[in-house]
Amino acid sequence: MSFPRIFADLHTHTNASDGTLSPEELVKSACNAGLSAVAITDHDTLNGIPPALKVASSFEIQVVPGIELSCGWSENEGSVHVLGLFLDHESSQLNSILIERKEKRRVRAFKILDLLESLGIDVYPLRNAFSMEKEKALGRPHIARYLVEINKTPDFQSAFERYLVRGAPAYVPKPNLMPMEAIEVIKNSGGLAIVAHPGLFKDWKLVWEKIGNFPWDGLEVYYSEHNPNQISFFKTLVRERNWLFTGGSDFHGNENDKSKTLGEQGIEKNQFDFLLRKALQRKAESKF
Ligand SMILES: [Zn+2]
Ligand SMILES: [Zn+2]
Predict the structure, then answer these.
(1) 117 alpha carbon to ligand 1 midpoint, in Å?
(2) What is the pLDDT of residues 102-113, one digit of tens each?
(3) Which residue in 66, 93, 264, 278 has the most C-beta neighbors within 10 A?
């Protein structure tokens, strides 16, 4: 039995966020993996898109401009990742939201450092590093790694538990984007708003009660960590709602996570063409 060929992997990360490959290297690898299309969906940034688009023509591969927005609620650390696919990466609304979020994350990171300092921990080197780094997202993982380095805590996990989680002495709430805001800005940017890896919600029922009636375009049905039962459950849901389905590997570069191989998850050509048509309709209807 032969499996249908994966035509497009619609979920990948470059080093513009937390992947290890540059956008150019990612496009080249996607081509080598036999893909005809690849979406770049970095966390909360569009910086990987222009260099990827630039090299796409020389590799005969279609690059789909995308993003993965981290969303959540202030009363709950639980998060929802929202994929925006086929969007206009030059959209001024989307870009200004991303700049504002970056600034808020920065403010939060410095607040955490202030709290650690008030606990008598020397955070000077980290404060210095954060002041120099203007482009990359700063956050708790960097701080946790530093706390391990200076032997304040034995490992990454305990750094979070001891200092950084809700209830711990250096906890500062996350500046969250609401899922509904993400849907709106993606749609206004001519893109399709998709629930990323719904199989990873810790409590599906609880999250779905909150977001199930939002105007999603679809669900990421095919995903590296979805099991066959989840895939068929989400497929049925998508059919019932008359939504779209997408698929992708969530590749971050093999060094980061060997279980997520580029081009191993995705969609076939006819599904890709269908999504493309829907995105063109969206662009025709949207404001620009
Ligand atoms: Zn995600
Ligand atoms: Zn991802």
Answers:
(1) 32
(2) 888 889 999 999
(3) 66
